[in-house]
Specification:
The complex is a heterodimer. By secondary structure, chain A is α/β, with parallel strands linked by helices. Chain A contains eight helices and ten strands. Chain A has a single domain, classed as P-loop containing nucleotide triphosphate hydrolases (Rossmann fold, 3-Layer(aba) Sandwich). In chain B, strand 2 and strand 3 form a beta hairpin. In chain B, strands 2-3-7-4-6-5 form a six-stranded mixed beta barrel. In chain B, strands 10-11 form a two-stranded antiparallel sheet. The chains are: A alpha/beta, B alpha+beta. At the A-B interface, helix 3 and helix 4 of A face helix 1, helix 11 and helix 15 of B.
Chain lengths: 232, 411
């Protein structure tokens, strides 16, 4: 048990999160206990409103926990200041969004470089690492293209490259294949799985796509803010 | 920081039409600001130069009190020390002694109160532009003999007195014994200067003739000095002052002699700043409005940038850069157009002959030569930069405060 805790990159105990919607209390998360080990490839499944995105947002430091304890990359998120959360997101977490969310005025390589720039890497190193990771995701010919000049699949690959380039401990992906067709989504999943295996990066993603669920190393089912089932 | 410059510059061009409208409005503001400044500079300096070249001189040596009361009793004898100073002080292009007496000029038709100025014709050519303003019609000539009974009057005064070249007029004034003296003089020539008040009230005769008529012996009212450049007046005054031994005699610069003209120039400047204030309040709101729209449009995107680790300060800087980029682009276009326009018009002049009488009242002449100065360009640049910066503070602050969670949920 002790060994498991030591290798956990995400450790959540008794997490609750309530929202106020038009005067009504919405219980988004109702006592989540979850431990994700380093190198896991985990999917969180559940219908809309089950709390998948809220959970990912809290783990990613975008939202604040209500009650309970959340540890990410060894750091307790409870009571962290905004700047500290910002640094955590920059240095320990990579994000992949459903709508890609690349910076539209930057090229593919600049989008990837941007994260390294925030980390203070020098220009040469930034360019080399960004180009290298874009080659790894199969975009060596799209380096100078802006998001509007690429397909959805290509944009999502850039988003994966951006999430990975800083060598984060965890990559959080909110329904990464939702905007992609079946084959592109499948290819993206292959890519993420390979990177997970080769680099040992922990992936945690939300989905309601059965194809994604089948290929996840671990599946966590959420209903009404509670974990109802999990499989290894 | 370079990435935020790059980002901001590219963001500016995401909405080309909107950015071009803002840039154009700034450019037009700067353009008219420069034109206004250059026109006012041109008018001011033409007014100064015309006043200096007709009557004032860059520096003048007077007896104390003469400036306030131009009576013969305020005349003085220029000693050899003053002449030594005039010949040895650097920056002096020319000098000429004058006698000035207030009096009346009469013809058979009319009379007019005037300033009768006695000049040494040869030396006067090196100090004032009267010689250049002489009309060459009807035998009009400049004075040549300082002792002759000749007089120069303006064309305007000649019309009022109904005289022509060769006619006789009478001047009357208070002499050195405070007695009324008179002298009949022949109109030798006529002039037309750009300064209406000068043409109305100043006439010229030979200095020796006037000294004799007024019983002044060799006493003079002033020595008018022309310096190499307008800006050397203070230096020349400082250079010549030690040579003046008589404590009752002093050197004054044109600024000291014409405080009302300096006040008028300061008034022009103040009016210009009010005008600029109006222009830039307009600009500040258009930039602020554009930046607020830009921030709202990119609410989601800015949130994503914050999600991936961008600090609020960097977002703030990016938005400030965007506004400054808009400002700089508008400023560059406005400065370029304004400078070219003013340089061209500075050479050709703007002919305002339609308003020539009004222009003569201001003493500027009917052709205005806009004068663009580096300090004006620098002022425009600083004002635009500050305006853009100030306009962006609020939208940049709002952008920096965007919460990633709200932004991600915002569609």
């Amino acid at each position: 048990m002790k060994k498991r805790e030591q290798s956990s990159v995400i450790e959540i105990k008794g997490l609750y999160k309530d929202y106020n919607s038009d005067g009504l209390a919405v219980h988004a998360l109702n006592g989540i206990d979850l431990s994700i080990k380093k190198g896991e490839f985990t999917a969180i499944a559940g219908p809309s409103g089950s709390g998948k995105t809220t959970l990912l947002n809290i783990i990613g430091g975008i939202d604040r926990p209500g009650r309970g304890e959340v540890k990410v990359a060894g750091k307790n998120l409870n009571g962290m200041k905004r700047g500290e959360l910002s640094d955590l997101r920059l240095n320990s977490i990579g994000f992949i969004f459903q709508a890609y969310n690349l910076i539209p005025v930057l090229t593919a390589v600049e989008n990837v470089e941007y994260v390294l720039l925030l980390q203070g890497a020098d220009k040469k190193e930034r360019r080399e690492r960004a180009e290298s990771i874009l080659r790894d995701v199969g975009l060596e010919r799209e380096l100078k293209r802006k998001p509007a000049e690429m397909s959805g699949g290509q944009q999502q690959r850039v988003a994966v490259a951006r999430a990975m380039v800083s060598n984060p401990e965890i990559i959080l992906a909110d329904e990464p294949t939702a905007n992609l067709d079946q084959s592109t989504g499948s290819a993206l999943l292959d890519l993420m799985r390979n990177l997970n295996k080769e680099r040992g990066i922990t992936f945690l993603f939300s989905t309601h796509d059965s194809m994604v669920m089948k290929r996840a190393g671990r599946l966590i089912n959420l209903r009404d803010g509670r974990i109802v089932a999990g499989k290894k | 920081m370079i990435i935020y410059l790059k980002l901001s510059w590219r963001n500016v061009w995401r909405n080309k039409r909107r950015s071009l409208i803002v840039i154009s409005s700034i450019a037009i503001g700067v353009f008219f600001m420069l034109i206004s400044m250059a026109l006012v500079n041109g008018m001011n300096y033409q007014m100064i130069d015309n006043t200096i070249s007709t009557s004032l001189g860059h520096v003048a040596i007077h007896k104390k009190g003469f400036d306030d009361n131009m009576k013969i009793s305020y005349s003085f004898n220029a000693d050899s020390g003053i002449y030594e100073g005039l010949n040895n002080t650097p920056g002096i292009a020319g000098w000429a002694p004058r006698v000035k007496v207030q009096g009346i000029v009469r013809s058979s038709e009319a009379s007019q109160g005037v300033m009768i100025t006695g000049i040494e014709p040869g030396k006067e050519k090196g100090v004032s532009d009267i010689f250049n303003y002489m009309l060459n019609t009807d035998g009009s000539e400049f004075l040549d003999n300082p002792a002759a009974g000749d007089v120069l009057i303006s064309e305007q005064l000649a019309k009022k007195l109904d005289v022509v070249t060769g006619d006789r007029i009478v001047i009357m004034f208070q002499d050195s014994r405070d007695e009324i003296a008179g002298e009949a003089l022949t109109v030798r020539g006529m002039f037309r200067s750009p300064v209406d008040s000068f043409d109305k009230y100043v006439i010229f005769t030979g200095i020796k003739k006037l000294q004799k008529a007024a019983g002044m012996n060799d006493r003079i009212s002033e020595i008018s000095i022309r310096t190499d450049t307008r800006d050397e007046s203070t230096v020349v005054k400082s250079g010549i002052s030690p040579f003046i031994k008589d404590p009752e005699v002093q050197a004054l610069t044109w600024q000291e002699m014409a405080p009302s003209m300096m006040s008028a120039i300061r008034l022009y400047d103040a009016m210009m700043f009010i005008f600029f204030g109006i222009i830039f309040i307009t600009v500040i709101f258009s930039v602020a409005n554009t930046m607020i729209m830009a921030v709202m449009e990119r609410f989601h995107e800015i949130g994503v940038m914050k999600c991936i680790g961008t600090r609020p300060l960097n977002i703030f800087i990016m938005i400030i850069f965007e506004a400054v980029n808009l400002g700089l682009a508008g400023m560059a276009a406005g400065l370029l157009a304004g400078t070219v326009f003013n340089v061209v018009l500075g050479a050709t002049g703007i002919d305002l002959s339609l308003f020539s009488e009004s222009m003569r009242i201001w003493g500027t002449g009917s052709v205005i030569y806009p004068l663009i100065m580096f300090k004006d360009i620098a002022a425009a640049a600083v004002i635009v930069f500050l305006t853009a910066f100030l306009a962006a503070i609020y939208p940049a602050y709002k952008a920096a405060k965007i919460k990633p969670l709200e932004a991600l949920n915002y569609i």
